[in-house]
Amino acid sequence: MKTPWAAALSSPVARALIRLPGRCVHIFVFFVLPVLVLVLPVVGLLGNSAPRSDPGSFHAIYMLEGGVLTLSLTLVLFATISRRWLYVLFAGWLIGNLRITALSMGWDLQWLGQDLPAESLLLIRKLTCAIYYLLTFALFIELFNNSLVRLQRPWLLRAGMLPGLVLLLAAPFLDYAQFTELMWWMATIGSMIAIVIIGHLLTVAYSSDILLYSAAMLIVIAAGAGVLDSLDAVFDLNFFSSAYIHIMATAISSALIALVITENDRAARTKAINALVTLSERDPLTDTLNQRGIEKHTQAALNALRRGEPFALCYVDLASLKTINDIYGYTAGDDVLKQACARINAKLGGNHYLGRIGGSELVLLLRNTSINEAHSLAHSNMEDLQTPPFHIGSRALQLKTSMGLVEIANPQLASGDAILAAARACRMARRGKPNQIAVHEYADQALDEQSQELQLLREFSSGFSPQNIFLAMQPILSLRDPLHAFDFEILLRMRDASGKLIPTSTVIAAAEEVGVVTLLDRWIVQTSLEWLHQHQANLANTRFVCMNLNGMSLNDPVFINDFFQLLRRYRHVARLLCIEITESIALKDMDNIQEFIAQLHSLGVRVALDDFGAGYTSFSYLKRLPADMLKIDGSFIQSMMAGPADIAIVEAIVALARNLGMKSIAEWVEDSTTLETLAKLGVDYVQGHTIAYPQSPEALTQSRCSADFIEDAATKAFVLEHLAGGK
After folding, report:
1. Rounded to two decimals, what is the model's pTM?
2. Which CATH code is given to the segment(s) 291-443?
3. Which of 6, 25, 386, 692 lies 20 to 30 Å (CA to CA) from residue 130?
4. Which fold has domain 458-723?
5. Cβ 533 vs Cβ 527: under 8 Å
6. CB contact at 8 A, 78 and 18
7. Mean pLDDT, consecutive 10-residue segments, the chain of 727 residues?
8. Separation of alpha carbons 186 and 36, rounded Å
């Protein structure tokens, strides 16, 4: 929460006040000084014949002193608000410059119309000279503070202030003649030190500000030494009086210093703005780019792509970080994240950038890098993230990581879409084993799917709508009774605006990304139950209808509640459903899955374990899950005919299912040879293109068994002659 003081400073009025010092300087430079220089001769102060005792002349002096004092007080006031020490120094220097001018011309007997004590006048003059020297040198240090940091001899700054301190200490003890002699010696030493410093600054950090300051000091010194009066006499100008020359020297030197301060203020604001811009594009925890920063650099890479400069994006998911946060706390997780970013940064070149766009998600932008070079760099980073282990105190931790690498070759792509393409590749890597890299080259079909997914993300982001989404149904053949069983699986399908079919994995990934997958599953369940209700008369031979539910839906209490309400509403057809649960989801939350299966069984709904054997298979957990069916992962079926070992694995799974009282279903059956082997192994059901491709719901209403859809001659002959007994 902001304090009242902070809130006051952040108000529009306060911000306007804070900018006033700079505006005061501008007004002084461009309005006050020209008016003073042009008007004062008119009022008689600076004419050749104007005596010092002339009341009009002294009235003009009071005006000059009052104007400078008012400006100085204004600068001090607003410097206090903005906390700019520079304006305080400038205000003091303006007054000192005016008093030095008055001293040079013999006008220093009064101050604002009041006579100064005669007994203190000489001391005041000596103190004025000493303080003016200190203010001048302090102003110099403050003006060029950033450049002076580079000074190789910092002791010169202390040496430059020393003459002023000597004068200040000597002022009360020396008479005026002695002090004047000492003052010229100290001024000479100080000038020489200033010349050395300015010369050094001009060689290492050339700046027009330094030249302006130097010019101002030269004018002050020239006026004080009488050089300007001598020049006026040599050239016999006689146009201006000595007083006017001194006033002009004061005005011009003040104007030059004011211009330096104005430029200094502008440079400080520019630096502050640049710092804020940089801060807005950096992640404060890891000191890498944030999402805004990485998108900005990605857009620059896309612009360079038009000139033929290739680049790639690598999306990094530090999957173990959430577990580390949960077990060891967020401090430990942050420490591991910083270590991981440091390891990655150590591998990056000058044209590569690392950004953090999520809690445990990073993006590598690899400019001017081919996909092969990017893959090599990603693989090297993957190895660095695995070994050595990350340390939290005395504990050594391994970090599981997934990477998605994409080659970007379309310069018309938006920067956000390019990053989403890499994120999609990373999701594909996560579906496999830990520490994998998924690579999508430009020619890869996955990039076409990515563009489809991006379009889906835009559609789903505005809310779920079933437009262009429909259901398909793939028949499942019973190897025990092929002519009298009509079982099938309900599948999700979607077409794009051109009518092209979008891969289901792309649709689901987009729905997961924007958080509408539970709405999608609810639509599938409700639409399926309504269709089963409407066509129940055509499904006399249907014993089960398989349906997939997303893991996110199974963990959503709202969806679970709606799901069981729909099952109760359509209980007369819900008994046909067979809900497929993947092995990985079942193992993640065994207790809740057991309760979920028990509720399904209470309503007569069957349960199938899907993709069995694809992941973490441990036969011991099967006895805790009272499933009705076991679907063998399609990858086993596809490779089954490669050798006897693969057949033995499938045979063992079939025997296991039988012994546990489950029916076995083989997926991805693509040819009659595989079908014959599965029949010999005792598989109960088969599903795949050799039986039937996914069909429209209308096509199913016109058939009586799954075998009606077989088109392959060899498959059909085997089914009729060997499975159906020649019927």
Report:
1. 0.53
2. 3.30.70.270
3. 25
4. TIM Barrel (3.20.20)
5. no
6. yes
7. 41 45 47 43 41 49 71 74 75 80 75 81 88 83 69 74 89 90 87 78 63 59 47 44 52 58 65 71 87 91 91 91 85 90 87 90 92 91 88 81 89 84 85 82 56 63 72 97 96 88 84 84 95 95 96 91 96 96 78 92 95 65 86 87 85 92 95 95 96 96 94 94 75
8. 32
